[in-house]
Amino acid sequence: MGTIRSFEDYQEQYKKSIEDPEAFWATIAGEFQWRKKWNKVLEWDFHKPEVKWFIGGKLNITENCIDRHLPQRAKQTAIIWEPNNPKDEALHITYQQLSEEVGKTANMLKAQGVKKGDRVCVYLPMIPQLAYTLLACARIGAVHSVVFAGFSAKSLIDRITDAGSTIVVTADGGFRGDKTINLKGIVDEALEKCPDVSRVIVYEHTKTKAPMKVGRDLWWHEEIKKVNAQCPAEEMDAEDLLFILYTSGSTGKPKGMVHTCGGYMVYTNYTFRTAFNYEEGQVYWCTADIGWITGHSYILYGPLSAGATTVMFEGVPSWPDWGRFWQAIERHKINIFYTAPTAIRSLEKAPISFVESHDLSSLKVLGTVGEPINEEAWNWYDKNIGKGKCPIIDTWWQTETGGFMISPIAHATKLKPAFATLPLPGVQPAVMNESGLEIKGNNIEGRLTIKFPWPSMARTIYGDHQRFKDTYFSTFPGKYFTGDGCKRDEDGYYRITGRVDDIIIVSGHNLGTAEIESAITEHKNVVETAVVGFPHDIKGQAVYAFVILHDKPGNDETLRGEIRETVSKIIGPIAKPDKIQFVSGLPKTRSGKIMRRILRKVAEGDTANLGDTSTLLDPAVVDEIKAGAL
Ligand code: WTA
C-alpha cells in the first residue's frame, strides 16, 4: 500500500480500509513473505469474542524480519546497541550478524528441548541477547513471555506459573545508571516457588556473582559454543501464538495478553512505516524497554520487518547526566525518536544546556506514547528537541491492541498539541456514553471503544477466555472497550483523557490498584487499604494509599518506608506509593463497596467537591480523611 504523504492520501486510504477492510489488509499482507497464502482474510465475532486474520496462511515472522532482507541488507545495521555506560562502545549488529545470532540462540534453545508452542520466560536487561532470544523463540515457534527486568520475584512467579513456563532465560545482572540489579538472585528467589522450571540459561553481563544450581542452570556462553548458526524457521499458522505479554488488570492478577503471528506482523510493520513516515535507511530509536509492548512492537518486530536500523538503549535518561538522550541522538544520527511523556517532563526540568550542547539536526520525526501528553510537555518537545520542524506523533494504543490505533501520520496529519488526532487506516473507533449508546458527531466526550477488528488485536487472555470477554467485550456488547475516556473535538480529533477503570498509569506503566492494594496488605501491620491515583508533575499519575493499621506505632515515616519496601518487593519499585495516609476507616457503602470516587477527590486535593456521601455506612470517616489528607 502506497506511503501516505498528504492528508488526502490518508483520507483515501482510510476510506478504502473502512469500505473494504479485507481487500485493504490483503494488499498490505501481500507485501510479506508467506510460506502459504491465506484462504480467507478475516473471520470475527465480537460477542464470542473470536477474531482470526489471514486464515490458513503460513509464515515465520523471523523470515520477514531477517531472511528476506539478507539479499539487499546483509551488511546494513539492524540493531544499534547503546550500552548503559556511554564510555563503553556501542555495538552495530548487521542483518547478517542478527541472522547468525538468532540462529545460534534458536539452536541453543532447541538443544534444551524447547519446541513449538512452549512458553519461554525471558527476564533479561536491554542487551542484544534479549532481541536474539525473542527472535529465536519466534524462529522455532516457541512463545516468548517477557517479564520486565525491573519486576520483583513475586511478579516473576505469577507470570511463570500462569504461562506454564519450564525454562527461563536471564542474565547475572543488569545495569541501570549507577545501579546494578542482581537478576539471577531474583530468579533464584522466584524459582523456589516454581517447581516446574527445569532449565535456566544465564547470560553473563554484569559479572555479578551468580550461584549456579547444578542440573538446572547453564551459562549462555558455554551452551552457545556448542551450536551452529543455521536454524531453519518453523512454519507457523497465521493464528499460532507469537507471544504472551502481561499487563495489569482491575483485579490483582495480571492478564497474559496473547498475540498471534500473522496479523501482528502485518499491523506492526504497516503502522511503523506509516505513522512515522519511515524512509529507507533511516535510524530509529524507541527508548522503551522490550519488557513492555512498545518495545516488542516498535523496537523489534515493526522496525525489523521494515528493514530499518533500530536502537536498543540499556541505560536511563538521567545518567551519567541529563544529556544522555541528546548525546546518543547526536552520536547515532537518529532520524526518528520515540519516547514517553514522563521522560519528556523530567528532561524538561533539567538545564536546557544539556540539550543545547548536542547536535540534533538529524531528527526528522518525534513520537510519544504511554499516557496523555500535556500541552506544556508537547510544546517543550516541539520547540527544544524538534526545533519546530519535526512532527510529534502522539501514538495512542495498548498492550491489547498490539500496535498504534489513533495517531497522526508524519507530514500528513495536521497536529494539535496533546491530541492523538485521528484513527489510522483500519481503525474504527466509537465513543460511547455510560448507558451504552454510541455518541455520534463531534464536540463530545465519552468512553472509547473500537467496533471493528484490526489485525494485531490480542486474541485472548492466556488460559482465561472468559476474563477476556468480561474485561473487553461485555461493557459495550459487540465492541472492544479500551478502558480509556476520550474527547472528540470539532475537527473529529481524539484526545485521550485517561483510564476510566481501576488502572493507574505511573510514568507510563500500567498498574492495577487492586494489585497494589494486595501488596500493601502483605505488611503485617496493615488491616485494609484502598489505592487511587493522583496527578503528579513528572510521573503523570502517582499512587496514593489510604491505609488502616492494626496498631499505630511511634514513627509514621518508618512505617511508610516499610510499606513502600513491601510493595517494591512484591511488584517492583515502580508501584511504590508516593503518599500513604493512615486512616481509621474507609468510605464504604452499606453493601461494603469502597467509594473510590471520594478517595480520588481527596487525593487530587479537591475536597470541596465530594458529591453525595449519604449512602455511606459511616459518613464521619470522610471528615477524618479530609482532615488528614497529604
Ligand atoms: C495509555 C502502551 C494517552 C492509555 C502502548 C492506554 C495513552 C494505556 C497513550 C495502555 C497516548 C497509551 N495518549 N494515553 N498516546 N498511549 N496511553 O498497555 O490509557 O502499557 O489504555 O500500552 O496507556 O498502556 P500499555
From TrEMBL:
Instruction: Give the family, as the similarity comment puts it.
Output: Belongs to the ATP-dependent AMP-binding enzyme family.
Under the heading NCBIfam families, the entry gives: Ac_CoA_lig_AcsA (TIGR02188), PRK00174.1 (NF001208)
UniProt domain AMP-dependent synthetase/ligase: residue ranges = 69-453
Gene Ontology BP term (one): acetyl-CoA biosynthetic process from acetate
Q: Does the keyword Nucleotide-binding apply?
A: yes
Q: Which residues form the AMP-binding enzyme C-terminal domain?
A: 515-593
State any single GO MF term: acetate-CoA ligase activity
Q: Which UniProt keywords apply?
A: Acetylation, ATP-binding, Ligase, Nucleotide-binding
Q: List, alphabetically, the Gene3D superfamilies matched.
A: 3.30.300.30, N-terminal domain of ligase-like
The record's section on InterPro entries has: Ac_CoA_lig, ACAS_N, AMP-bd_C, AMP-bd_C_sf, AMP-binding_CS, AMP-dep_synth/lig_dom, ANL_N_sf
User: What PANTHER family does the annotation carry?
Assistant: ACETYL-COENZYME A SYNTHETASE, ACETYL-COENZYME A SYNTHETASE 1
Q: Which organism is it from?
A: Chryseosolibacter histidini
Domain Acetyl-coenzyme A synthetase N-terminal: from-to ranges: 10-65
Its EC number is: 6.2.1.1
Q: What is this protein called?
A: Acetate--CoA ligase
Broad enzyme group: ligase
The answer, when asked if Ligase is one of the entry's keywords, is yes
One matching Pfam family is AMP-binding_C
